[in-house]
Every structure is written in structure tokens, then in C-alpha cells.
């Protein structure tokens, strides 16, 4: 074992000693994965409890959105471009993965620019890019919409499900009677775009510690130690551990792009419901690029699968083990809820990495 | 055979890509449809090569493999080199010396001859290096758009020397697990040469014929218990299969598994796990601890074994087989089978 890590773990144990139960929530799927992959729960003292929040954009995409995308895919004139993780999410009846095996035009892309290039080369086809993700990916979508607008690429559309993180954290804090969150591990990639400022309310208004963390085992352990020290000294603030990437003001160019293209609106988070001012919608000027508008799709209320506890899991109220379906009828090859589908979903991370403990 | 063999219904309506990725779905297809109609004592072992113990008094190994790689040319190789290496390595993994191969070419109408020639030339180079030959073959051409460029099937036979007995059934607690170098390069080299993949990388495929390496390993010791070519599904998948077949538990160590820097970086960026990414020139060996050094020395002298090292060991017999992954920071977790092809993450 590396010496610096041993020392770090020892210091965490010393600092946590005497403190009461501390619930630290991470709101980034990549953190959830890193915690599982490195088995960090095994080295933390008993009174530190890591809980996973709604940090995986795929998991919080509403069933109605999935059903709409499947409807678009059923039209042979349409070409759907999607990141791979979206493919397996079960809608109310099918999934994109199954539709593809039945012949629908569904292409996995690594970058949204691929979808745009395809649209330029095939002007007679309708291209729909599934725009998903938080502040990390929204600027890329914004840049493409700008390009589509300027070049009048009118066969290019996005199915927009972009969401932003701070309002979700505020929502979690307001439901803290249920989840008892003591502190947040904030998402490094999101904050690289937004900076730390939009997260200041966590300490200023709600009096809770928050640390913007990197993604290695060492980064996460260091961030946990920073949180513990804040608690011990009773000085909650928003600190940046991932300081070689994240600046207080973030990336002004990316922010500018988002501001120029998107307005902020309410959004439905799967398993949670409506969160005020947590979604990005295209400004009126760009509405023609919105597949929901151009193809006249509606939001239909679809009930979640019975017994699936994804809602409680995303809020940090329950752990995957506490869901009755976990590892039984719900497994990665046959997911019932979205948290089991995406590789960064909480249930799938627990299934993959935490079985040793059960 | 996996437990899914017991339930005899194949639930999917259409064939999905994941039925061909070597993971759980592939297992379902093999166990529920293929074994259902063809099952027999030799096939049911589902090993890299079939061993026929008494083929007119000789012990021979026989295997087949199909190649559909996309793109056909990738850094470090092409479908021609690959289709020979793949079959040679399957034979080598049974401890056999490869002798002869067959080749079936299925080509799309319009495919440029200069590319076909390049592919055959690369295949020829490997045949020469491994002192093997294509002794029978077949060619079919399919109308344009009826398929994607070129698919190749090869089969191969080899002979197994007298008392050589290499099978997962011989794996014992205490066995050291050795690999001949760094992992995950083939899968990433192919992925990064796809046109839709817009990143530049320097990763080249490890595609290589390992028959000479295996020959020298077996020559140095009669205590090489089992071998496995770590292709689809990566080293994690094959170790899980080996632990199931031998009913043992295995421990491997993060800080001993060689992963090149650029491989690690790309995996982190794409959210992929190198343990599950395909190799085409990596042999995993289970060796009695008494002979580990002898075997390692022999491997390091071969050009495909310079970076050989021990990555773990077999810890105990157990009906609850499992592979434990020990992380750098002293924690451990169980490695799980791949549920479907690894897909890049979103953010
Ligand atoms: S285990 Fe499955 S059903 Fe239960 S909460 Fe997770 S995703 Fe939903």
C-alpha cells in the first residue's frame, strides 16, 4: 500500500474520532464509480457514511423522454445519435437497444459533433442528437446549436434533456429531513465549467460543508478529510480540492455559450419529480432545433416500475441493498430501474463493486 | 457451463450485439441454443480448442474462429494478421503446436483488391513466422451492402505432445498467475481507429502469434497447469471463467497488472475498465509455484514475453468461485462478469 494513502486514512480516522454520524453525499456518477472501484468504504471509519445522489444524467432522464425518443426512432426517416449509455434505459415499453436490433436508425456517438457532421453530409435525412448531461456537456450542445443556426442546418435537431446541478442540490437540502445529509462532495467536471460560486449557497445558506473533488482515490480521501476538518472546526465553506482544474469562476467561454443558447426552466428528474429551475431549454430563437417542438412530442406521465426504489436512492434516503429487487429481479443485464442501467448509476455501481460486503 | 444452461428458454426475440461480445448474453446463446442442438462431451467443455484424445492414436487440438473486426485495418495489424494469430493462439492455449489452418473469405462486392492483397500478405507473414500453412480454403463474394467489407473464418489443427495436459481442471491453490505483458491495447487500438472516434492516440494493437512463447513455456516446465488467450472480455472475463471451471478462488493485484500509461488515461477518459478490454497477444498462465521462475525466465527470452510478470495467485478451492481484485490502497472487491459491451460514459 502507498504510504501517503495510509497516512491519509489514519488522519481521517483521527479526525472522525469523536464526531457523530456523518453522511457525505456525492452528486457525480464518476465519484460513485471511483468510490466503488477503489473500495473506499472499506477503509473509512464507521461513522462516515458515503451516500450517492442524483449524479448520473442517464438515471434521471424521465421515462416520458425515453418513450418520446423511441417514438422518434420508430420513424425510418429519422436518425438518432446517442451516447452509448442511453441505449439500454428501459422506457415504458422498449429500449433504444432493442429498437436498434429491430432495424431502427440508432447510432452511438462519442461526440455530438459526429451527429452534426452526419446532418451536413445527409441533408435529406433528419438527424436527432440526444442531448444529455449536466453543465459538463451542455456547452458542447450549445456550440452545435450555434453552428446549426449559423449554417442553417435545418435537418439537425436535439432531443434536449440537459439539466443543471445546483438546483438539485438545493432540492436535496430542502428534503434533508429525509436524508440527513451532513456534507457534499461536489462534482469536479461540472465545477470545471461552472466554477465554485454557484455552489456557495450550500455553506452560506444551509451551513453545510462542501468540497469540489477530483476523481482518484487519493483525491476523494483528501476531500473527505477537508470536510471532516470543516465539521470539526465548525466552519462550513465550499472548498476546492480539484484546484488544478476547477477555478472559482469556472470556464467563462463555456458559460457564455450556455447563456447564449439556453434559458433555465423547470425539469422532471426521474424518480424525484419536478425540480424548479433545474433544466435548460433552447431560447425561442433556436426552438426549431428542438425535436420536441418540431416533431410535436408531449410529456406524458408514465408511472415508474412498481417496487423500484430509484427515487429514494437518488435522494439518498435508501441504499441499493434496501431495494427488494436489487440483485434479484433487477440486475445489469435485466434492469428494472434506471439506476441499474447506466454504468454510473448507483445500483449498478453497488452491484459491481460492493457485493463483497454482502 | 454456466447456470443459465439449466433454463432452456432463450428469452430474446432478436439477436442483439451483446450476444456476440463474449459476456453473459453470449453464454446464454451458446448454452440455450447451440448446446441444445449440438451438445457433446468435447464441445460442452467450451475451451479455446477442442482436444481429441484418441484421433488414430494421436492427441490433436482443433479450433475455429471468425473475424469481423471494424475497421479492417487498425494500428498494429489488420484482419489478415488477426485471423491467423487468433486461431494460432487458441491452439497454443491448449498446449498444442499449430500445424495447419483453413481460411474462409467472405468479401463484399466492390472491395478493393489492393486492400485484399494487403490482408493476405499480413496473414502470410504470420504463417511464415509460425511455420504453419493454410492448406484448404474457400471464397465467397456477397453483393454490395450485403455485408461490411470482409469477414474471415479460420480453423486450425495442431498436435499435443505426449503427456502435455493443459486445462483449467488442473489449476490448484498456490498456482501463480502469469501474463506476458500489458493489457487492453487491442480493444482500444481498434476503437480509436473508428472514424466516429475523434481522439488521437498512440495505442497499437498487441496482436501477435504466441505459439513459440507457449512452446518455450511448456518446454521449460511440465508444471504449466492451464493457459488462456485473454481476448474478448479482457483478463477479467477469462479469469472469472477459469475460476469457475477449476472451482477455485483467485486473487489479483492492481499494482502488478501492467497497463500502459496512455491506455490508463484513455480508459479513464472514456469510463472503460482495462480489465475488460480485449487483447490479441496476451496469454494468461497458471503455473505451479515451484516452477514460476523457470517459466518466467523462459518467457522473458521470447520477443512476445519481455514484460512477463506475476499478477496474482490461486488462493483456495471453493465451490463459490470468485476473482478478488486487490486495489493499490489495500481494499478488495469481487470482479464481475461483463453484462454487455462496455460503452463510453456521458460525463
Ligand atoms: S435495484 Fe433496480 S429496482 Fe431497485 S432501486 Fe435500483 S434500479 Fe430500481
- Give the overall silhouette of chain B: globular
Name given to the CATH architecture of the largest domain in chain A: 3-Layer(aba) Sandwich
Q: How far is the first residue's CA from the last residue's CA of chain B?
A: 37 Å
The portion of residues forming beta strands of chain A comes to: 15-25%
Q: Compute the CA-based radius of gyration of chain B.
A: 20 Å
Examine the coordinates and then state which fold CATH places here, giving the name of the CATH topology of the largest domain in chain B: Phosphoribosyl-aminoimidazole Synthetase, Chain A, domain 2
Would you count the extended β strands of chain A for me? 11
Biggest β-sheet description of chain A: 5 strands, parallel
Physical arrangement of strands within the biggest beta sheet of chain B: 9-11-8-12-10-13-14
Number of alpha- plus pi-helical segments of chain A: 15
* CATH class descriptor of the largest domain in chain A: Alpha Beta
Q: Topology as H/E string of chain B?
A: HEEEEHEHEEEHHEHEHEHEEE
Would you tell me which CATH topology of the largest domain in chain A applies?
Rossmann fold
